[in-house]
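Re-run with default settings, no changes from the original entry. Doing this only to confirm the output is reproducible before filing.
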Amino acid sequence: MKEYKYILLDLDGTITDPMIGITRCVEYALNHFSIQVNDLRELCPFIGPPLLDSFRDFYHFTDEQAKEATEKYRERFADTGIFAKRILDYFDIARYFTFVAGSGLDGSFYTKGDVIRHVLESNNLTDHPSVVMIGDRKHDIIGAKENRLDSIGVLYGYGDREELSQAGADYIVEDIAGLRNLLFHQ
């Protein structure tokens, strides 16, 4: 395996488990449409993909309904959610990161590819072979491919081997120990 100088990490599902926060925000949005969910675990497929796509794909919302649902999600998230930097601070791991970015509540950086592109441009990272993206869902892998980066899929998050493999992950690891061994050749 190559030696990487820069490691990009997905947050939700790769570094932290966002299940309760994300699914409660989705539930709030669905309640706006009089859709009741009995078990928040049913909403775990929302973890990772862009919200607009998820509302369209999983609930067959029109574009207008998906946009309204996303606004409702963000309404609750803005009140009760925690942003990436705050999550890293909460877990006392922010000091291990030199740059934090994510999709904006205003809809900016819609796809993971957009977020990755923003990170690369903001840090003037033009030597793409020295950068690797690590994530638990196909969107992380696809975003890496869109930006000509290698990618590592992790199976301890919300995706599975088939999803990560079909997305084209360069490497797939089972757990943190496997990720450490892969990155640091231990």
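The mean pLDDT is 93. The chain has eight helices and four strands.
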